[in-house]
Design goal:
- It is a single chain.
- A hairpin with a 4-residue loop joins strand 9 and strand 10.
- This protein has 115 residues and is an all-beta fold.
- Helices cover 0% and strands 54% of the residues.
């Protein structure tokens, strides 16, 4: 079992920044890929950024150059630094971790970009 807890969401004006955190606990040694997803009202959940098993980081085209995915293995936490936020970035953001047995999800954190 893997537990994921996100934090850092909130309300921000267009052009502003937020940093999301996702702390992992439990059987983290089984995790081979981690990612951030988001789901806006009325839309399907979509991939924002991921670090895959080969160690490479991938970004959705819509966030390239604005978002940065990083990890701190010492505290079992991954981060999503979001800069130059746009209203269309408004969504619930979810942390994901994949193991050979199953995929785990956090509870989600709301990000609202509005003036």
């Amino acid at each position: 079992q893997v537990q994921l807890v996100e934090s850092g969401g909130g309300l921000v004006q267009p052009g502003g920044s937020l940093r999301l955190s996702c702390a992992a606990s439990g059987s983290i040694f089984n995790i081979y890929a981690v990612g951030w997803y988001r789901q806006a009202p009325g839309k399907q959940r979509e991939l924002v950024a991921a670090i895959t098993s080969d160690g490479k980081t991938h970004y959705a085209d819509s966030v390239k150059g604005r978002f940065t995915f990083s990890r701190d293995n010492a505290v079992n936490t991954v981060y999503l630094q979001m800069n130059s936020l746009k209203p269309e970035d408004t969504a619930v953001y979810y942390c994901n971790a994949d193991t050979p047995q199953e995929a785990y999800w956090g509870q989600g954190t709301q990000v609202t970009v509005s003036s």
